[in-house]
Amino acid sequence: MASSVVRVDLDGKPINPLTICMIGAGGFIGSHLCEKILNETQHKILALDVYNDKIKHLLEPDSLPWAGRIQFHRINIKHDSRLEGLIKMSDLTINLAAICTPADYNTRPLDTIYSNFIDALPVAKYCSENGKRLIHFSTCEVYGKTIGSFLPKDSPLRQDPAYYVLKEDASPCIFGSIEKQRWSYACAKQLIERLVYAEGAENGLEFTIVRPFNWIGPRMDFIPGVDGPSEGVPRVLACFSNALLRREPLKLVDGGESQRTFVYIKDAIEAVLLMIENPSRANGHIFNVGNPNNEVTVRQLAEMMTAVYANVSGEPALEEPTVDVSSKEFYGEGYDDSDKRIPDMTIINRQLGWNPKTSLWDLLDSTLTYQHKTYAEAIKKVMSQPTTS
Ligand SMILES: NC(=O)c1ccc[n+]([C@@H]2O[C@H](COP(=O)([O-])OP(=O)(O)OC[C@H]3O[C@@H](n4cnc5c(N)ncnc54)[C@H](O)[C@@H]3O)[C@@H](O)[C@H]2O)c1
Ligand SMILES: O=c1ccn([C@@H]2O[C@H](COP(=O)(O)OP(=O)(O)O[C@H]3OC[C@](O)(CO)[C@H]3O)[C@@H](O)[C@H]2O)c(=O)[nH]1
User: Fold this and answer.
1) Taking every annotated instance into account, which residue ranges of this chain make up the domain NAD-dependent epimerase/dehydratase (predicted)?
2) Domain boundaries, the chain
3) pTM > 0.95
4) What separation in Å is there between the alpha carbon of 13 and the centre of ligand 2?
């Protein structure tokens, strides 16, 4: 619950209540950020999205302690003249809106590029023209592949962090060829980062760019056939959760050799609140937000999720818990992958003193407990229904 004690920033100065225009507030990250802001601060939120299912619990009923501090606006930012007015009414805009599921990048590259670049342009422009601060959500995917991935498999240099740790102000952005449409998203995100950065350099826009490294937790994406399309392909956490709930093998794309670092959403949201409340330390910076200690291959992630889910559900794991699939079969033509993603933490540490806390096992335990409670019964119902042909 937000206390009446005056909040102070990292330099001990009082923080005045802000009005925040949050675009994409109804998504995974947006829902957690709204919860945090309403519970712990006195800031007001203008929550913009086309959906509000994930923040319904914050909007109704009127008797909630934060009533009056969050207002939902059902707006598609592609075509809505109210956008500029809402940005003008706010002290800060946070743009989370995007198509950001890999299954879309190679199959809907135009929608992906429009969503991540064209639709984000007016937001940057309105903030710049009206002298409003912007926190723009980019992605770790702008780094693409590591330099090390181009070395021979047995090269000892592959063990040298200089060849794989991703640094905001030093690492190059390495994407595949144009036919590999997987990179449509990363490329659009890179260009909007460059535009926001240039607005800062040429027109004085006060901006912060966030590069999330695989934030995961409750409410991420959807379970196909329950609260999303049966044929939909969400991100890996929901794909693997879906298979565990249905007692089906988890699909490992191209052997599950790619590596990721996963950070708990609640840790990551702490970093965003620090950016919101410490503009003098966050403005003009690009921040990696991830947990370098939680690195696994996708195969190891599948094994760990299988073990955690067996504990949570009380049901033994399948004898053959995983199955290999090719990326062409799973994602279609034009898929490609980031090999490894370890965030360098120097800048966020220096500017905001932020560090992630939660181990991979612990974050999977709380997330899969949530998945089980939320979906186990619904899945049983769906699976007991006769399939229509
Ligand atoms: N979750 C992660 O680990 C992660 C990693 C890298 C980058 N990001 C970035 O963070 C942001 C949020 O990601 P998320 O995981 O919460 O995704 P999400 O899909 O759950 O949330 C995005 C929200 O934006 C909304 N939206 C999309 N287009 C819109 C439009 N035209 N008008 C209004 N609303 C629109 C969607 O309805 C959705 O609610 C994205 O920009 C994404 O690229 C997230
Ligand atoms: O059933 C599955 C699903 C996926 N994989 C593989 O897992 C790796 C991670 O996949 P995913 O979480 O879907 O996405 P990425 O990490 O590749 O990309 C995201 O990172 C950040 C963001 O920008 C936004 O969330 C997005 O682009 C990957 O190697 C898949 O091939 C699997 O084996 N089985």
Assistant:
1) 20-290
2) 98-376
3) yes
4) 40
